[in-house]
């Protein structure tokens, strides 16, 4: 009887907390499992701003980078399931199971799926001094410099790493892969000419392309983009790299066991943010497409990630790369 009473009191306490969620004097933390200044960090900060009003609470960012995003993701998986610690992650949610040895959590069962945020195309870019002004010239340059080309990325398991792996496989050319601790240092070295090429998200490359700090050669979507700075770039498919399509998506997650009432409030706030004109404008300006389909529903979000895991796991296994 005493045990049942204790459980009832705990349940009542959780119910009261859920009813009062979010408390005005307690911020909600969104963990970003990548370094500050990168594309996922930018998406998360824009989302935090857009979710503040519908939640009626402050939303802050915590960058916890490393190990293919598993460090930050594990931080959320092990956090108190009260709605005050969330995770924004990208395609890494579907690549960690195949990429990270001894993953300390299960992607499909240790999180509550809140909904998708956006779809982000990738761009193939090069250092400013690269002697090529279009993709045809880039192809010739790659052929002339086999074994000498450095291809940068934001770290093992990052979106830029995955895109780079697929690109090398598609053109059947091996390059020296140079991993960095985040997109920002990789971009700095690309601009400075220390590396030759990078395949990265439009959320990180668009402003650099606009400023002519890097050379842009192609996008990874099936159709050309409409963003002013990117609209003249061909798709890799139309350049001859057939069926090359890579789109990076972002989603929002909470720890497993978060009360349903809290999850509902968070999902409602997410949906409100995705309809916020200012948020949409910011994302479109970076070449990203805000999700407005059924993937904003938790069940559809989870189904989508499961399909992505099935898609990426064999590709990662074939490449033989791991993030320890």
TrEMBL record:
Keywords: Signal. This is Tripartite tricarboxylate transporter substrate binding protein BugD. InterPro entries: BUG, Bug_dom1. PANTHER family: BLR1237 PROTEIN (PTHR42928:SF5), TRICARBOXYLATE-BINDING PROTEIN (PTHR42928). It comes from Variovorax terrae. Gene3D superfamilies: Bordetella uptake gene, domain 1 (3.40.190.150), Periplasmic binding protein-like II (3.40.190.10). The keyword Signal applies. Residues 1-18 form the signal peptide. SUPFAM superfamilies: Periplasmic binding protein-like II. It comes from the Bacteria. Belongs to the UPF0065 (bug) family.
